[in-house]
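Hi all, long-time lurker, first post. I run a small reading group and we've been trying to get comfortable going from sequence to structure in the token notation. Rather than ask abstract questions, I figured I'd post a concrete chain and ask someone more experienced to write out its structure so we can walk through it together at our next meeting. Sequence below, copied exactly:
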Amino acid sequence: MEYRKLGRSGLKVSEISLGSWLTYGGSVGTNAARECVLKAYELGINFFDTSDAYYRGEAERVLGEVLHDIPRTSYVLATKVFFPVGSGPNDRGLSRKHIMEECHASLKRLGTDYIDLYQCHRYDPETPLDETLRALDDLVSQGKVLYAGVSEWSAEQLTAASQVAHQYNLHPLISNQPQYNMLWRRIEREVIPVSEREGLGQVVFSPLAQGVLTGKYQPGQPLPAGSRATDPRANHFMPQLLQEQTLQAVENLRPIAHRLNLTLSQLALAWVLQQSNVASAITGATRPEQVVENVGAAGVVLSAEDLDEIETALQGVVQY
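-- Answer (accepted) --
Happy to help. Here is the structure in token form:
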């Protein structure tokens, strides 16, 4: 495993990390979750990502239970706050009230005294930015949170956050968690340049494009039974990815992966990690074998010729 510093901080995270969206605490049982997490840890993954919104806290509970017997100082635990966790008017967003209450609730579910990386799951236009950042700063000062980050914030929002933190001498944000993969590259134009300037690193989700970049979905073939594309909770993310042109483009990547002695998944993850502002690619896994395969992408270096060949294979299907 290779490790990278997260933004301008001194925190080091594994290039490949393990997330729990749509898996642990829900569609994947506790025993399977345990096998995946322990295999990830065994292979050097030290960054585990979850959220209070994943299965209404069950993902946090399961992850905390599985990590309980692992030395706390040996891994980086990340969770998030923003999405509704109840029906009340203050059960959502990034108000001081909600951040404080949900941090305490997450700590309890995770069974830990502190969260390494606490992330604002989205931007909250209804709460003053200084209120949000002051709440995060207080949690850091209290030792309940070590670092703060965000997810899917725009370049303008990241810039504003940096200005507010500087104005009030608050602990700065160190990370952003956006969607990023071979097919979805919208952060390249503005978010990455701003992040580099302001000292944030990316911990990217969906590096395998909901599994499309694994090659499991074949052009002209029915969807595999039990796949994410057949899950009603996830398939609203899938239609654009499952277009025949996109699936054929993914097939065009197979000879490249074969020449490099990589699987399609490993090629896709290695491609994401060529971006120096990316600290870690968050992967999902329902079986330990998937963890082993994903970890095989760590440390892979693609040449300029490899990258050019990938661009040619994906021509016409990339979203910028």
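A couple of things your group might point at:
The chain has one domain: 3-207+271-300.
Residues 96-110 form the longest helix (15 residues).
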